[in-house]
Amino acid sequence: MKKLNILVKGIIKENPVLVLLLGMCPVLAVTTQAENAIGMGAATTFVLLGSNIMISLLRNIIPNKVRIPCYIVVISSFTVIVTMIVEAYAYPLYLALGIFLPLITVNCIILARAEIFASKNRVTDSIMDALGMGIGFTLALLAIASIREILGSGSWFGLAIPWLRDNKTAIFTLAPGAFITLALILAVVNKVTKGQAQRKNVGCANCPSAGLCGKTE
Could you tell me the pLDDT band of residue 205, with boundaries at 50, 70 and 90? Predict the structure, then answer.
């Protein structure tokens, strides 16, 4: 049950996009099509899973003073692997995601989970945490991308939708459409949760960079 709670937490209670508001750059940039959202979500989940496992295994070996650089090396290594896989086997997706694929290295979701969870927990729990956060991230991307593609392009996963195909709202394919869609979804989430959705990692105690700035409060 504990492991199930860890998994569900990342999908619902601590959704990295809709609750914690992390990783906003890819959320706003690559969600013009649902297919791109799935691709980015899958790639990010792969890096999350790999880095969480590796950092959890090495948590008692990595010196505390250099832990952040070590985490970045691990994360960037898995990012290179997934970038090469996507380029080799899904080249159109590789072109669509562009610079945001290698920029998974600096996605704050991944570094935050490494510092807050993987470095303090066993491998099995770290796997569940990575899967929960990855699935939550992917579902949020898919929700935003679906709305933008349906309204902006009149299609979903490239399949034309009658009437909407000829009555597109072009703004949803542009940057303002991304902000509008995100704002509407966040408003719905806050309405459903009655304003109970809060960012759980606010404060120095849970900040990935707390050790670098020297603050403890």
Answer: low
Structure tokens belonging to residue 168 = 């597109």
Contact 190, 19 (CB under 8 A): no
The runs of H, that is alpha helices, within the chain are 2-11, 24-29, 34-57, 67-89, 91-97, 108-116, 123-153, 175-192, 210-213
pLDDT in tens, 107-122: 999 999 999 999 999 9
Distance between CA atoms of residues 199 and 120, nearest Å: 20
- pTM for the complete prediction? 0.86
Of 35, 16, 5, 4, the closest CA to residue 134 belongs to 16
DSSP annotation of 154: S
Which residue in the block uniquely carries the two structure tokens 């970038």?
Answer: 83
**What is the rounded end-to-end Cα distance, in angstroms, of the chain?**
32
Q: Measure the CA–CA gap between 87 and 183, rounded to whole angstroms.
A: 32
Q: How far apart are CA 13 and CA 5, in angstroms?
A: 10
Nearest to 78 by CA among 134, 12, 6, 17: 134
- Give the SS3 label for residue 206: helix
Distance CA 115, CA 209 (A): 9
pLDDT digit string, tens, across residues 138-154: 999 999 999 999 999 99
Number of residues in the chain: 217
How distant is the alpha carbon of residue 107 from its chain centre?
8
Q: Using CA atoms, how far apart are residues 147 and 181, in angstroms rounded to an integer?
A: 7
User: Biggest alpha carbon distance in the chain?
Assistant: 60
